[in-house]
Design a protein that fits this description.
By secondary structure, the protein is mainly α. The longest helix is centred in the last third of the chain and has 30 residues. The chain is globular, with a radius of gyration of 18 Å.
């Protein structure tokens, strides 16, 4: 009985964390309905762990109930994205400043490897892998802060903006490649140099520009609908 209970707990945790990761990496689209049976098949579990994971994410404000039954990725307004931008700026700047002070050589080496992976995905035009490696780089970057509570709050904000990452392609990503193509490598160098101010400046520009661009896209869409 104890072994079965532990297995059930592990299954619930795996499904919950798996859906969180998919949201952060842009695997789901804004407004997309999350289908219980499809997710159960994907994770090799019954419907119950999936249903519990989705309910938990609804309670946390990451997903939304529709008509009392369906669960969907929320459709964000321009104002909501601007709010998330300001919150992410405050938390991610703190994480990067601390990370630049305490990151280990191994952590910095991992960041450098992920920065290269983002560049390779971009050069290949692989949007899915691009988004995956961007999210992996950013969360590795913030984890360097050794502040797990802060990291969890950053993750909760990312879960809400992750489904919109694809909207940054191709125009915003092309802009970044023109004006600051190596900023991830620069932030790795700032970490090696323990330069918190440089690291802070780099992450501020990235978060501010990307989410402001996203807000402008959503604002234009809202105007067309009105």
């Amino acid at each position: 009985m104890q072994a079965s209970s532990s297995k059930d707990t592990a299954a619930r945790s795996d499904v919950y964390e798996g859906i969180r990761t998919s949201l952060a990496r842009g695997h789901f689209s804004p407004g997309e309905k999350l289908v219980l049976r499809q997710l159960a098949e994907q994770y090799g579990v019954s419907l119950t762990p999936v249903r519990e994971a989705l309910y938990r994410l609804v309670v946390e404000g990451v997903l939304a109930h529709e008509n009392g039954r369906s669960v969907r990725v929320p459709v964000l307004s321009r104002q909501r994205v601007l709010e998330l931008r300001d919150m992410r700026l405050a938390l991610e700047v703190l994480a990067v400043e601390r990370g630049a002070q305490v990151a280990s050589s191994a952590e910095i080496a991992k960041l450098e490897k992920l920065a290269k992976a983002v560049e390779v995905a971009r050069q290949a035009g692989d949007v899915v892998r691009d988004n995956e490696k961007v999210a992996e780089f950013q969360f590795t970057l913030y984890a360097c802060s050794q502040m797990p509570v802060l990291l969890r709050h950053i993750e909760m904000l990312w879960l809400q903006t992750g489904p919109y990452m694809r909207l940054l392609h191709p125009h915003f990503i092309s802009y970044v490649q023109r004006v600051r193509p190596s900023w991830r490598r620069e932030i790795c160098l700032a970490f090696r140099d323990r330069d918190s101010a440089k690291a802070r400046a780099l992450i501020e520009v990235d978060v501010s520009e990307s989410l402001t661009h996203l807000a402008e896209i959503l604002g234009a869409s809202e105007m067309l609908k009105s």
